[in-house]
TrEMBL record:
Domain of life: Bacteria
The keyword Iron appears for this protein: no
GO MF entry, a single one: transaminase activity
Protein name in the entry: LegC family aminotransferase
Keyword terms, alphabetized: Aminotransferase, Pyridoxal phosphate, Transferase
Protein family per UniProt: Belongs to the DegT/DnrJ/EryC1 family.
A Pfam family reported for this protein in Swiss-Prot or TrEMBL: DegT_DnrJ_EryC1
Length: 380
């Protein structure tokens, strides 16, 4: 475990710590305390308040979209975004098996079923080729959209995920799915600050969703945002996530089954302060990625860097090890030494609730599942 040992000392040097080193911890060095205190002093800590509006405006600017809607977490954002894309019970939604469980859960919450397709080796995200192969074999465009001609179900959305902030081949996916009349919802939970062709992730699909959980690049404690360029869909997102309440001076009028998914003002305050630091975080992470790259080249470990035409936020940085055995040994050795490392996720169809879902051969997903590990990536 010579290389793993050298890795540990490099990481300890960088983070200047002999103690436990986490994978990703938040950094609060800006206006966080000030803004959170303002919500307490004004008593507006909950569902009404100026920071929610400010957060939504900041997200619109950052993602270059026309409407951002703050929600309670990324998972609920995905659930509502899929519903707004037109996903209904009994439908099929194309996605990747190599993802965090929330991607698949958001599909299931709508009563729909995920179809797990393979990822690209370079991006670790949904492969346009895999989607194309699937659609050629199973897809049929009818008046109401795309159908799976073998199961008879509607294929009502495609949900690619930008793994660890590395953008998927989103342009190709958009072009392909347009042809097949399938709307795209981007799971951009991990990719705030990442771009493809200079355009922010989350802006390419009909809707995009971000997460502000404690482990993400920017945190609101817990939170999420739905973004879209379609103002009508944006309004509907606000409406559905705020209990579908019709405006009225005093009556409670609800005309649809809505959700209480709004982000509290106290969380939005934290999010606003964090977003002010995003550029700084991106810069620090890029510096760490550069030193990692030089170091890992020198010991002959494969460190993942951005693919052509993309800018990666380097949220969680990763190594590609030789095989499952080397991966397991590396994980054990580093974690035993109190340097936190984690494997990439288990493929979704291995989980009991998704074991009967449609899927393709998953060659690349299996390859990556056996080899990719995350290494400490905090801003320090
Ligand atoms: C974090 C994450 C989510 C969910 O976000 P929460 O805010 O934790 O609900 C969804 N998808 C992916 C890929 C994530 O990493």
């Amino acid at each position: 475990m010579q290389k793993a040992e050298e890795t540990i000392s490099f990481i300890r040097d960088h983070f200047k710590s002999k103690g436990f080193i986490p994978l990703h911890e938040p950094s609060f060095t800006g206006n966080e305390k000030d803004y959170v205190l303002q919500t307490i002093e004004s008593t507006f800590v909950s569902s009404v308040g100026a920071f929610v509006d400010r957060f939504e405006e900041m997200m619109q600017t950052l993602t270059q979209t026309r409407r951002a809607v703050a929600v309670v977490n990324g998972t609920s954002g995905l659930q509502v975004a899929l519903r707004l894309a037109g996903v209904k019970a009994g439908d099929e939604v194309l996605t990747q098996a190599l993802t965090f469980v929330a991607t698949a859960n958001a599909i299931a919450y709508n009563g729909a079923r995920p179809v797990f397709l393979d990822v690209d080796l370079e991006t670790m995200g949904l492969s346009p080729e895999a989607v194309k192969d699937f659609l050629i074999e199973f897809g049929e465009v009818r008046e109401q959209g795309c159908y799976n001609k073998k199961t008879g179900n509607r294929i009502s959305a495609c949900l690619p995920m930008h793994t660890f902030g590395f953008p998927v081949k989103i342009r190709e996916l958009v072009e392909l799915c347009d042809e097949w009349k399938i709307p795209i919802v981007e799971d951009a939970a991990e990719s705030l600050g990442s771009t493809a062709e200079g355009i922010p992730t989350g802006k390419f699909g009909k809707l995009g969703v971000f997460s502000f959980n404690g482990n993400k690049i920017v945190t609101s404690g817990g939170g999420g945002a739905i973004v879209t360029d379609d103002l009508i869909i944006g309004e509907k997102a606000k409406f559905l996530t705020t209990t579908a309440k019709q405006p009225h001076t005093y009556e409670y009028v609800h005309t649809e089954l809505g959700y209480n998914y709004r982000m509290p003002n106290i969380n939005a305050a934290l999010a606003c302060a964090q977003l002010e630091s995003l550029e700084h975080f991106l810069k620090k992470k890029r510096e760490l990625a550069t030193s990692y790259q030089i170091f890992f080249n020198s010991i002959n470990y494969k460190f993942r860097t951005e693919t052509e035409g993309t800018r990666v936020n380097y949220w969680l940085m990763c190594l590609e090890l030789e095989n499952r055995k080397e991966r397991d040994a590396f994980l054990k050795f580093t974690n035993d030494s109190k340097v936190m490392t984690r494997p990439i996720w288990q493929l979704m169809y291995k989980l009991p609730m998704y074991e009967n879902c449609l899927r393709d051969r998953q060659e690349n997903a299996k390859y990556l599942e056996d080899r990719i590990v995350n290494i400490p990536s905090s801003v320090n």
